[in-house]
Every structure is written in structure tokens, then in C-alpha cells.
């Protein structure tokens, strides 16, 4: 069984996969000061609830955009599951070209989304990820990663609006029935929701025009279903895209430490 860890800026998602599919998926708030033992207490309880044990895990893969969290996630895999985790980075075998100026600068989540989206839906396509940042990533017909766009995330924009304007409250995200708000909260909700819909439609149109061919649009992230309601641009919603990318990457790059009799490794990079 494979332990998959997707460490984002807001949440860390843990999942386990075997030949039958995903056996469980759990998330916890990202905190780079949380230790491997703290992760273990939480995760092992959930595994027990799913009738699984650490001995069921024979490999692990980590994708993270939070370098400070990596040490403790590695220690979790080594100390509690006795496996050496594969860490997603541009230097691995992805099975496709990374056609950008500095591949090492591309967030692992973006490459993972590209890998899973092309494997599942074919190309060419653009992946929109509604995370801490809202990203647009372009994949050509052969699966090559062609680059993309990074914009402020929706929750980040809401918090910035509240922090910068003293009279504007914190609000929840929802789909307003009208564009013209009749009050402050309604106006803010409209600006966020329909403003991002406008960005999604405008950005995908510009990307498609520059790319020179029609593109499928695949969306992922917790807010993808909400924003897909307001536009016809998004053709697929896949909430497990990054997890699937990690699983596929682990298949392409098997780690050499998959047995429980290996010697303890010293922490490296």
C-alpha cells in the first residue's frame, strides 16, 4: 500500500492507495512546527479507524510546496512506517518534458496536476487549481508541461481585502444571484465570485489564443465545484488530481528502500 502526502500552504492531505484504489483520505491544517510524532498520533488513529496498520504501508511519496514541513514528514515515514519516501521534485522522471526556463522553480503540485490530468484526460489541456494561489497550467498533446499562470488565491484575496480596508468585514465565499450588490457584503461576494469567474474565462481564452489550439479545462481544489457553477469554461472537476499525480509519480520512480529490514538512514537534503 502506498502512503501519499500532499503538503500545501493551507492543508496537508494524507491518503493511502492499494490495488483496489484509494482506501482513505484525511487532511490537517499545515503547521511547519508540527512534529513527526504529532502527525503519527493523528494519522495512526485514522488508519486504525480504517482498519489499517503501519505495516500495510510499503512505500510513500511526498509532494510539498512548504519546505519547512518536509523534515517532519520524512521523519514520519521513516520512524513510523519504516519506508523511505519519494519526494516530488523536477529532477525526477516525470515522463514528460518540463518546458520552462527554470524547471526547479515549478511547484511540485503544478507538475503533479499536469501528470495526472494528461494521464486521465489526454491533451492539450489547462489545469486550474483553486488553492492558496489560483494557478493555470498548460499541458500539450504529448503531455509536456508548457508553463502557466499564478494568481492570488480566492481566500487570500478575501483576507487582503479585509485587512487593507478597515470597514470591510470578513465574508464567506458563495455564488451571488446578482452581480450588482445591494449591500457591502453582497458587493464583496459579487466582486470575489464574479471577478474570479471573469478571470477564469478571460485567462483561459488568452491562454488558448496564445497556445493556438482548443484546450480542455480541468479544475481541482476545494472551490472548483463552486466556481464551475458560474462558467461553461470548466469541462472537468477532479478533486483528487494532485493525489493521483503523486501516485503516478511513485510508480515511475520506485524508491530503493521498501523493506522493513533496511538500516536506519541518516537525514539528508
From TrEMBL:
<dbReference type="InterPro" id="IPR043129">
    <property type="entry name" value="ATPase_NBD"/>
</dbReference>
<dbReference type="GO" id="GO:0004594">
    <property type="term" value="F:pantothenate kinase activity"/>
</dbReference>
<dbReference type="InterPro" id="IPR004619">
    <property type="entry name" value="Type_III_PanK"/>
</dbReference>
<dbReference type="GO" id="GO:0046872">
    <property type="term" value="F:metal ion binding"/>
</dbReference>
<keyword id="KW-0173">Coenzyme A biosynthesis</keyword>
<keyword id="KW-0067">ATP-binding</keyword>
<comment type="pathway">
    <text>Cofactor biosynthesis; coenzyme A biosynthesis; CoA from (R)-pantothenate: step 1/5.</text>
</comment>
<feature type="binding site">
    <location>
        <begin position="107"/>
        <end position="110"/>
    </location>
    <ligand>
        <name>substrate</name>
    </ligand>
</feature>
<keyword id="KW-0418">Kinase</keyword>
<feature type="binding site">
    <location>
        <position position="132"/>
    </location>
    <ligand>
        <name>ATP</name>
    </ligand>
</feature>
<comment type="similarity">
    <text>Belongs to the type III pantothenate kinase family.</text>
</comment>
<feature type="binding site">
    <location>
        <begin position="6"/>
        <end position="13"/>
    </location>
    <ligand>
        <name>ATP</name>
    </ligand>
</feature>
<comment type="subunit">
    <text>Homodimer.</text>
</comment>
<keyword id="KW-0963">Cytoplasm</keyword>
<keyword id="KW-0808">Transferase</keyword>
<dbReference type="GO" id="GO:0005524">
    <property type="term" value="F:ATP binding"/>
</dbReference>
<feature type="binding site">
    <location>
        <position position="184"/>
    </location>
    <ligand>
        <name>substrate</name>
    </ligand>
</feature>
<dbReference type="Pfam" id="PF03309">
    <property type="entry name" value="Pan_kinase"/>
</dbReference>
<keyword id="KW-0479">Metal-binding</keyword>
<keyword id="KW-0630">Potassium</keyword>
<protein>
    <recommendedName>
        <fullName>Type III pantothenate kinase</fullName>
        <ecNumber>2.7.1.33</ecNumber>
    </recommendedName>
</protein>
<feature type="binding site">
    <location>
        <position position="129"/>
    </location>
    <ligand>
        <name>K(+)</name>
    </ligand>
</feature>
<dbReference type="GO" id="GO:0015937">
    <property type="term" value="P:coenzyme A biosynthetic process"/>
</dbReference>
<dbReference type="GO" id="GO:0005737">
    <property type="term" value="C:cytoplasm"/>
</dbReference>
<keyword id="KW-0547">Nucleotide-binding</keyword>
<comment type="function">
    <text>Catalyzes the phosphorylation of pantothenate (Pan), the first step in CoA biosynthesis.</text>
</comment>
<feature type="active site" description="Proton acceptor">
    <location>
        <position position="109"/>
    </location>
</feature>
